[in-house]
Design goal:
With 268 residues, the chain is mostly helical. It folds into two domains: 138 residues, no CATH class; 114 residues, no CATH class. The chain contains ten helices and no strands.
Length: 268
């Protein structure tokens, strides 16, 4: 992975955080509520909002005290998110048609993006300070791979759903990316919490992936005429493959951490 992406608090990672947050939650909110907004157009609008919000927060990072407080990140994220949604509503009519829903959605997304930017900054500095104290090179560990699950999920959903239109492609990309990070959250931090070298977490992850995947398939119901199989079937297949990919990757990272800790442990 590119070095700047391993550091979650880098400018590049910050913009990706904003893009993932805005596109992921806005698109899924629209799909869940059944709004007939072209996914491609929604992606363009929310991407623009994401870039502007991250630019504002990063340029004012120290003035707004995001470097000192995650709550400050939540506050200013919510404020800027709501304000930018107000601007988006003035030029994008579909947002005005459901004013309250999109206002609350923007408030939540903005809050989350601001909070993550503040948290990532503080956590990266903590890791770097610990490495300096130990006199070792900075190693962000598992956190350096934070983007991988998004990529796994997006690649799987694009492959399984084989989009024949821009809207379906955007939907598969975004839903897959969010599904990937949910799968990673389960496999990396729950299933592999203790059973680091066991295959049981992989099997459990695949079973969970089928359920989550079938549920995610409901988000594709408006594209039924473009799909080779039912959206529930394709969703279940995509979910299983996504969980399998992230669980296998989680197993590799867990074994690597275990081996590293053993190598660094003092002899008894």
């Amino acid at each position: 992975m590119i070095a700047t992406l391993k550091q979650r608090s880098s400018w590049t990672s910050s913009f990706l955080t904003g893009l993932i947050g805005w596109n992921g939650f806005a698109l899924i909110a629209g799909l869940v509520l059944g709004y007939t907004i072209p996914s491609g157009m929604l992606f363009l609008v929310t991407s623009s909002v994401a870039v502007v919000q991250v630019l504002i927060l990063r340029l004012g990072f120290f003035v707004l005290r995001l470097d000192r407080s995650v709550p400050a990140g939540l506050l200013w994220g919510a404020v800027t998110g709501a304000a930018l949604m107000g601007g988006a509503m003035s030029v994008f009519a579909p947002f005005r048609e459901h004013f309250l829903v999109w206002s609350l959605t923007a408030l939540y997304i903005g809050l989350a993006v601001g909070g993550f930017l503040a948290y990532f900054y503080r956590d990266d500095r903590r890791i770097e300070a610990q490495a300096q104290v130990r006199g070792e090179p900075v190693d962000y560990g598992r956190d350096a791979h934070w983007l991988e699950p998004f990529g796994f999920g997006a690649a799987v959903y694009l492959t399984v759903f084989l989009p024949r239109s821009l809207d379906l492609a955007v939907t598969a990309l975004v839903v897959g990316a969010i599904s990937g990070v949910l799968a990673a959250g389960v496999s990396h931090f729950f299933l592999f919490a203790k059973l680091r070298t066991s295959w049981l977490p992989v099997l459990l992850g695949v079973a969970g992936g089928m359920a989550q995947g079938a549920f995610s398939g409901l988000l594709f119901r408006q594209y039924g005429d473009q799909l080779a199989l039912s959206y529930l079937t394709l969703g279940a297949i995509a979910g299983v493959l996504t969980y399998l990919a992230t669980a296998l990757r989680g197993r590799v990272l867990a074994r690597r951490e275990l081996e590293s800790s053993r190598a660094g442990a003092p002899e008894l």
